[in-house]
What we know:
The chain is mainly alpha-helical. The chain is built from 15 helices and four strands.
Amino acid sequence: MADDTGDKTEEPTEKRLTDARKKGQIPRSKELNTFVALMTASVMLLFVGDSIAKGLAILMQQQFSLSREVIFDPASPVIYFKQVLLDGLLLIVPLVIPLVLAALFTPMMMGGWNFSMESMSPKFSKMNPFSGLKRMFGMQGFVELLKAIVKIALVMFVASTLFEASFDQFMGLSRLSLNVAVAKALDMIMFGFLILSSTLILIVAIDVPYQLFSNKKKLMMTKQEIKDESKEQEGNPEIKGQIRRKQMEMSQQRMMDEVPKADVIVTNPAHFAVALKYDPMGSGAPTVVAKGVDLIAAQIRNIAMGADVLLVAAPPLARALYYSTEPGEEIPQGLFLSVAQILAYVFQLKTATENRTEKPVFPRDLKVPDEFRQQ
């Protein structure tokens, strides 16, 4: 019983995965996002860092070289501030654009692109302090704490190793001219930034599989959940059965309402009953308005007798009509002759009864083709 209701041993269904995406429950790795952003920034700094540094140096030099008239002009600060701001933004555009693109497209590496309004909507459960404490001291909180400790230890180890390896170069900067020392220091800082950023790939290599595993584990289902989902999609069998029974009852009632309008009831005579109606002024063939077997056939006969509809015993024809034609359908062409003989007898009998003349003889040579005969 526990395996059927409590243990999540089944793979998530397509509906479960789709619903999870709508709720924003897809695998995401903050470590991957951080790693890609840092690597993008470090690589771009290696390519455009020198030009950005030179451009900023020129901007600073220009601002420190303003004339006395400009400095004491009340309008100058605003004008120069706007110009410096614009020039500074233009300088960092080559760095900012790749960072923005990395921030947008990195999440697509895990779980694909997904925008969920449901995940953005406020939830009071997130404001519950007890839920927050549960997250902090739960497995997820423990994993995040462990990752933070490993990151700090790893970065500190690489940074100290890198500092020891570059110590002589740092000390040698004092013997260089200012411009050369600044340029070399910037190169060392950017190279060190690249090395430190690349060390996070170890964290990413652990975090990405864990996030995939954790997300899949959350979406795993019990057998009972799969059964319930199947019922929701396909409909509860009991409810569907009730609906079918109700539809059959309504269909049967409509069929019974048509029996008094029939011209004749062709019977087996005990087991089958088929009600036929024919419009002599119309262009169509006779139509089956009701049919039944056993209890339904008895009900059709009772209604017909109460409505003075003639019952005619023709077993082969009754069975042929029952198996070949549904209520509301015209009879098949192969049965035209036999049904025409029956209807002719019925109409002649009605006329003879009204006129009190000699009654017609019931046709004894009704021919039913072999393909319509049912055992």
